[in-house]
Amino acid sequence: MTAIPAVRPTGAHRGRRAATRRSGPPEDAPRWERPALAAVLAVAAALYSWGIGHAALHPFYGAAIRSMAGGWRAFFFGGLDTNGSISIDKLPGAFWPDAVSVWLFGPHTWAAALPQVVEGVLTVWLLHRIVRAWAGPFAALIAALVLTLTPVTVVLNRATIPDTALTLLLVAAAGALQKAVRTERLLPLITCGIWIGLAFQAKMLQAWLVLPVFAVVYQVVAPGTPLKRALRFLLGGTVALAVSCFWVLIAWATPVADRPYLDGTSDNNPFALVFGYNGLSRFSSDSTAFGAVAGTANSRTTGNTGWNMLINDTVGPQVAWFLPLAVLAAVLGVVWRAGQPRTDMTRAGFLLWGGWLAVHAVVFSASNGNHAYYMAVIAPALAALAGGGLALFRSEYESAHDPEAEPEQEPEPEQEPEPWSPYVSAYESKPGPEDESEDESKHESGGRRHLALPAAIVLTVGWALVLDRPTGFVSWLLPIAVMLALCGVVGLWSRGPRTSPRMVSGALAAGITATLVVPAGWAVSSLDPLYAGASTAPIAGPVGNAYYAGVREHHAPRRIGLDRPSARDTALLDYLTTHRRGEKYLLATQTAYGAEPLLRAKSEPILVMGGFTGNTPFPTTQQLTGLVTAHQLRYALLTTQRPTTAATTWVKSHCTVIQPSAYGRRTGGSFTLYDCTTQG
Asked: Which of 255, 350, 524, 547 could in theory staple to 333 by disulfide, Cβ–Cβ 3.0 to 4.6 A?
């Protein structure tokens, strides 16, 4: 496959780039690239790991992580307790690294959060590598910076939520697809399918949203006949389906007595868990679609939907700082490449990342509700488009300001480098004779394209003012951003024949820095727990219910952790352990709400009745009675904060209330402990 030339500078500047490109090996990378990338990765690691000992441990997932670290049954099936009586209401893949980390290092909060930090830094590094192969080192550095400083990325990588693993795996899939298109090799396409299948283990159907985009890009851009392209992508899709469904099929084939009951399902069917509870029920008015149990206010969020979902006052500051630039880059990147051959890699990149952004925006807008942190999955697309767009605009800018220079003498013989080399930029392709005339015609018809670079800087900084205006959160940074933008734009606009390259580079650096200042302020704010949202819904800045609750209560939301029980939980655990007489279960709880703090504090079998929502039909009254009769269960902890079920009604009518003073409490609050040994 021959590398497709992109819109490029002419003259001496272009000649230098062509000569540089032909030499090809890694040592020809710009001297600043490796130190710059190292600095970006260091910043990412610092932002994501600062105060990791008090990371935003999700109460429900945190309990499951500790339980999964205690045994193979709980580990593989995502058991909520060490015995694996009931699973979590998600596939367990995203939590396997967390459980392994806790198994290795012990039940510490930092151990549970460490894999998220690693996944976040790996995503930045991988995106840099992918964008570099597509658009060069300049674009790659911008993309890495934008992703690193996206507020929702920072706050999510400091939590224990599946979206971090999902994002990493989908970025890896995009890189494999890009390599498959470049090389016309089958193995990268198979690898792409494997990454998507693994992403399915992290967030189920959401991992498949990129498949239509990948299919279009491969069918439109990849070399070969249409039939060959279709058959190859069908094979890659089959691999993605097989890897996606491997856990579901194993769970389906395993006898129900040998695995946990699957939370979120009315029939203990893994397909209902994936396609019902975590699928159709989130997009239809029927919350029990395809075997799902009905959701509750605790399991189903509302809001953040509709056409303006990405730019509302809560979601916008999390992820949308480069949205206008990304849209502009995607549109111009496709339009400006309209005359190129079908296999043009430059256009393919804009189609890939633009399609990624568009599909997720449409699906999120149409759902019944979204947490703001769901938008973390579009951050790589926004970052790649920002980097690729600025690189394209810079190329046009340089071309317009050096149109008359003659190319430098090029060494012979000429040899085209391998198109898959990660050190070849699509914007630095070697021009041929036919491209010279093409460049001339483009400069005649598109002479104003050089304005795109300063316009993009102005647009992005102006948009930052709009997003920050409702809260004025980092208003002290706005003058800095505006001044840097003015310096950058004026420097670029006033460039003349005698302007030194160093001055132009300084102006460009000032302009790009201006676009990053305000989102960086929001991102860094999440290091303060007051501006990091709730552990169940991490978001940055002075937005969201957790922030307003913290303001009312005059303190940041309290962080929970592994192996850090409260005095009340310790007293209850001591009472239950002291009075245990060989029962299999320490106690039964009404939903996961009462079990979570006990499971985070101590690895014990706890029978979680009703699962996360309280509506999951497990255990049945007959099963509960059998456990009590067989002396496998003695105590039950009920709460007024969750719905009443047949099992809880049986407990109330057959078991004896234990006074709170017996286990060191003045009052039970919303909880009541029952002793079922005297049941009739």
From this structure: 350
Amino acid occupying residue 368:
N
The 10s digit of each residue's pLDDT in 239-267 is: 999 999 999 999 999 999 999 999 999 99
Is residue 153 within 8 Å of residue 379, measured between CB atoms? yes
The answer to whether 467 touches 317, Cβ cutoff 8 Å, is: yes
Report d(CA 151, CA 525) in Å as an integer.
9
CA–CA separation, 422 and 381 (whole Å): 19
* 259-to-144, 302, 618, 631 alpha-carbon distances in Å: 42, 32, 13, 22
Neighbours of 435 (CB within 10 A): 18
What is the Cα–Cα distance from 56 to 110, expressed in whole angstroms? 10
In the chain, DSSP finds a helix count (H) and a strand count (E) of 26, 5
Q: Tokens for 217?
A: 């890009």
Quick check: bond before 413 cis, omega within 30?
yes
Among residues 437, 398, 438, the alpha carbon closest in space to that of 12 is found at 398
Q: Is the pLDDT of residue 14 over 60?
A: no
pLDDT value at residue 80: 96
**In the block, residue with structure tokens 């101590």:** 602
Residue with tokens 């933008």: 485
Encode pLDDT of 616-632 as tens digits. 999 999 999 999 999 99
The predicted model gives 446-471 an average pLDDT of: 92
Contact between residue 17 and residue 428 where contact means Cβ atoms under 8 Å apart: yes
CB-CB contact of 316 with 456 (8 Å): no
Q: Please choose, from the candidates 482, 478, 501, the residue with its C-alpha nearest in 3D space to the C-alpha of residue 490.
A: 482
What percentage of the chain carries pLDDT values higher than 90? 75
Say if residues 607 and 588 touch (Cβ distance below 8 Å). Answer: yes
- Ramachandran class of 457: left when φ > 0, alpha when ψ lies in -120 to 50, beta otherwise: alpha
pTM over 0.85: yes
